[in-house]
């Protein structure tokens, strides 16, 4: 019987193949990994074949039955995660020694913060990028809950999310506040009405409510509406408002573009609004990471103010 191949050493090329393998496993198929990796499906397939040759094992099944990892593939993936984490730990330690920034910053941002006029995140990323070409910035746009899960499982180094109900394993630092108003579109009956809608009209009009966690103030205001639709993020809320069939709350900086074009207007501005704190979030007990610490210092200074529930 032919002896199984022994992996004698691990090269930079092997690490690249392992990262591709991790992405393929996360995406669940070669075609889904194609866009995530920015390479063609045939290139993804070739890289996976190269890795299987390197380790001497079949790592996944692909074909008409769909994509799945073999038992060996799951074990190699787990071992690869340990190896890649060790490489990142080594890189962080060397960075701390020579103070040169090299490595990755994985940041999760809730959708539609780019229109926030203070642009603190943009300026901090710009400063980080200016420190050298050894930093790779990876941004993922997602829901607050998914960002928190990414911080817990290590996929993300830092997140930017609304501050609602803090989770015990995360640290929250105040970034800024944003104000949300109740909006309708130019196709909604409320838009042309010269008088503000009263409580009865508002309570019977179809409205959209976020499916993510909200502050007590935001929950109370939504309870006064006839919420017949939900949305997982702000863009979904905007889509439904723009149909002309729903009213809903949006941050003023995000709605400003449509308001300026005459496609939306706020309703009862004086009384129907709420403020939400935006926070930078990291995992408690996280590994020391010079790139992350540099980003946080650029963002908020050396001593960011901690957020308290309701603050």
TrEMBL record:
GO terms for molecular function: DNA-binding transcription factor activity; transcription cis-regulatory region binding. Keywords: DNA-binding, Transcription, Transcription regulation. Residues 13-70 form the HTH lysR-type domain. It comes from the Bacteria. Coiled coil: none annotated. PROSITE patterns: HTH_LYSR. Belongs to the LysR transcriptional regulatory family. This is HTH-type transcriptional activator BauR.
């Amino acid at each position: 019987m032919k002896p199984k191949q022994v992996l004698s050493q691990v090269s930079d090329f092997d690490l690249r193949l392992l990262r591709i393998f991790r992405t393929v496993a996360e995406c669940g198929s070669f075609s889904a990994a194609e866009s995530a990796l920015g390479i063609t499906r045939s290139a993804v397939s070739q890289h996976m074949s190269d890795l299987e040759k390197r380790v001497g094992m079949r790592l996944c099944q692909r074909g008409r039955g769909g994509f799945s990892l073999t038992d060996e593939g799951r074990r190699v993936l787990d071992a690869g995660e340990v190896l890649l984490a060790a490489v990142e730990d080594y890189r962080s330690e060397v960075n701390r020694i020579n103070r040169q920034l090299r490595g990755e910053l994985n940041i999760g941002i809730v959708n539609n913060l780019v229109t926030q006029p203070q642009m603190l995140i943009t300026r901090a990323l710009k400063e980080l990028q200016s420190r050298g070409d050894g930093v790779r910035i990876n941004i993922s746009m997602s829901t607050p809950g998914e960002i928190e899960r990414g911080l817990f499982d290590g996929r993300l180094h830092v997140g930017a999310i609304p501050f609602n109900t803090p989770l015990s394993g995360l640290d929250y630092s105040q970034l800024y506040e944003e104000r949300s108003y109740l909006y309708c579109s130019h196709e909604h009956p409320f838009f042309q009405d010269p008088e503000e809608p009263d409580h009865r009209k508002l309570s019977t009009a179809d409205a959209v409510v976020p499916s993510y966690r909200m502050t007590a103030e935001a929950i109370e205001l939504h309870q006064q509406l006839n919420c017949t639709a939900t949305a997982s993020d702000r863009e979904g809320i905007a889509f439904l408002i723009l149909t002309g069939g729903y009213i809903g709350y949006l941050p003023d900086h995000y709605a400003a573009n449509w308001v300026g074009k005459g496609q939306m207007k706020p309703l009862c501005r004086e009384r129907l609004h709420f403020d939400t704190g935006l926070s930078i979030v990291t995992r408690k007990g996280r590994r020391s990471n010079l790139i992350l610490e540099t980003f946080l210092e650029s963002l908020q200074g050396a001593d960011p103010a901690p957020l308290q529930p309701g603050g």
